[in-house]
Amino acid sequence: MSRIPQLKPDGPLTPEQRRVMDKILGTRGGKVPAPYRFALHCPSITEAWAPLGEHMRLHSSFPARLQELAIIIAGRAWDCDVVFHGHAAHAVKDGLPQSVVDAMRNNRRPTFSKEDEQALYDYCSELLEHHEISDQTYERARKLFGVPGIVELTALIGYYSMVAMTLVAHQMPVAADVERLVRPR
């Protein structure tokens, strides 16, 4: 059970919550993503947050395989089962090896066969784990993705960190059949 109520389209809403909810429903095919069910308690924040999410999701310059890898790295960094598992299947469908997802789920460093995956993983992991990026890792990512690419990548993991933090803080329930992330010791 979550710590605060998850607001739903058919539940009681203030006029401001209803207005923002209807905008989200219109852009998300009639569905309300998990973090917005909590964020809608502050509709003005949700109204600012939702367009950024749409932009990150629909207008990324990264191929889906790398975009999903960045998302599951952020989910893993925050031990957020909902983000990690919600995007892991997409990552595999989009070409990320299952072995990478499995290693990450079990809190192990994956082995990569593609240079772009390794560079992206190192960039995101260093920033999320150590709160800095080595010059070598930064330069490798910049050469592969360009300056706009690393700016976008940083925003992408920042956005999904916010999503993960919201879900973790308010304890979004995880389906009983989901294999939970192995937590660090």
CATH topology of the largest domain: AhpD-like
In the CATH hierarchy, the architecture of the largest domain is Up-down Bundle
Strand residue content: under 5%
Number of domains: 2
Q: CATH superfamily of the largest domain, please?
A: AhpD-like
The averaged pLDDT comes out at 95
CATH class of the largest domain: Mainly Alpha
Roughly how much helix do the residues carry, as a percent range? 55-70%
The helix count comes to 8
Per DSSP E runs of 2 or more residues, the count of β-strands stands at 0
Largest sheet: none
Distance between the termini: 25 Å
The best one-word shape is globular
Q: Residue ranges: pLDDT <50 for 5 or more in a row?
A: none
Order of helices and strands: HHHHHHHH
Strand and helix map with partners:
Elements: H1 15-27, H2 34-39, H3 43-58, H4 64-77, H5 81-93, H6 98-105, H7 115-130, H8 135-169
Written overview of the protein:
With 185 residues, the protein is mainly alpha-helical. The chain folds into two domains: 44 residues, no CATH class; 102 residues, AhpD-like (Up-down Bundle). It has eight helices and no strands. The longest helix has 35 residues. The radius of gyration is 17 Å and the shape is globular.
